[in-house]
Design goal:
Elements (H helix, E strand, L loop, with lengths): L2 E2 L10 H11 L5 H9 L8 H8 L16 E10 L4 E10 L6 E7 L7 H12 L3 E5 L12 H9 L3 H16 L4 E10 L1 H12 L6 E5 L16 E6 L3 H4 L2 H10 L4 E6 L16 H18 L2
Parallel strand pairs: 1-9, 4-5, 4-6, 6-7, 7-8, 8-9
Antiparallel strand pairs: 2-3, 3-5
Length: about 300
């Protein structure tokens, strides 16, 4: 095990605004309360419009890999989920230069469905040489609606146990995919980070490597099952998720798990998401390089 820090990047927006957005995005406070709190820090130059423009996603400005990139091919595939909602659907991205079976990587979205940012992450994974698959947890209720607020509301109403089973089914579908080598990695963000931790504990003999970005751990009673090497990516300013780390680290040590944790200084929850002001370009780039290198090492 080792820990690491990287150089900080400052933000022009007061830190409490990011903290309030995190509480709003995770259902701890409602939109009215969120906007009310933002109103207490607005000024003539720091307007409500400015704050919301920084805090809320701008997906069009964040794309790193275009879906028409000649090095990848993207399609949609469905998969059976008998213990979940019956059927799942996701975004499959394959390197066009693929000559034979390749390692597969499950890309798991936040608590709002398969938005453009997560689809872009799947394309990045394919550009790195992996067969990537990003399930849409909202498929049973019509799919990602094109709006994060609506997507969060939709996901919040879903049966959590069935939703988790859908991601287990997606992982098994991908591990057995005809284009895959049988080696399965998973990377997820926020809720998706939790899902990666959950997969490591729930299907320990099937997941070969896990990279949760700022995700809470699986239920305490199943953490002892984890076998896969884990690369834990945390943000220093993410007090909510970081509060769970000491207990999780203790359980990983007791289970003899090969894990590395990187704590990114002055970074907020969501620092990898390049569609919002929480994005930290330097540290997100480093975190992604570490992710790719980790998968190349453990899925070879």
């Amino acid at each position: 095990m080792n820990t690491s820090n990287t150089a900080p990047e400052t933000h022009p927006i007061p830190q409490e605004a990011f903290d309030w957005y995190d509480e709003y995005a995770h259902g701890i406070i409602d939109r009215r309360t969120f906007l009310g709190r933002l109103g207490t820090i607005t000024t003539a130059t720091l307007t409500m419009g400015t704050l919301l423009a920084v805090l809320t996603p701008d997906y069009a400005a964040a794309e790193q890999v275009n879906f028409n990139d000649p090095e990848i091919k993207a399609t949609y595939e469905t998969f059976p989920s008998p213990r979940g909602h019956g059927e799942g659907r996701g975004y499959l991205v394959v390197p066009t230069a693929l000559k034979g079976p390749a390692p597969v990587v499950l890309v798991v979205h936040e608590n709002r469905g398969l938005n453009p940012y997560i689809k872009d992450v799947a394309r990045r994974a394919a550009k790195a040489g992996f067969v990537a698959f990003a399930p849409d947890g909202l498929h049973p209720v019509g799919g990602y609606p094109g709006n994060d607020d609506e997507g969060r509301a939709m996901q919040r109403k879903m049966d959590r146990a069935k939703l988790e089973q859908d991601f287990i089914a997606a992982a098994r579908f991908l591990k057995g995919h005809k284009l895959g080598s049988g080696k399965l990695g998973a990377v997820g963000f926020c809720f998706g980070g939790y899902v990666v931790n959950m997969l490591a504990a729930a299907i320990p003999n099937e997941l070969n490597a896990g990279v949760p970005f700022y995700g809470t751990p699986a239920a305490e009673e199943i953490r002892k099952n984890i076998k896969a090497p884990m690369l834990i990516q945390l943000a220093e300013l993410d007090k909510r998720v970081n509060a769970s780390w000491p207990g999780y680290e203790k359980d990983l040590k007791e289970a003899g798990v090969d894990y590395t944790m990187h704590m990114y200084p002055k970074a907020n929850h969501g620092f990898h998401n390049d569609s919002t002001g929480r994005y930290d370009e330097e540290q997100a780039g480093l975190a992604w390089k570490r992710t790719v290198d980790f998968f190349k090492k453990h899925l070879a």
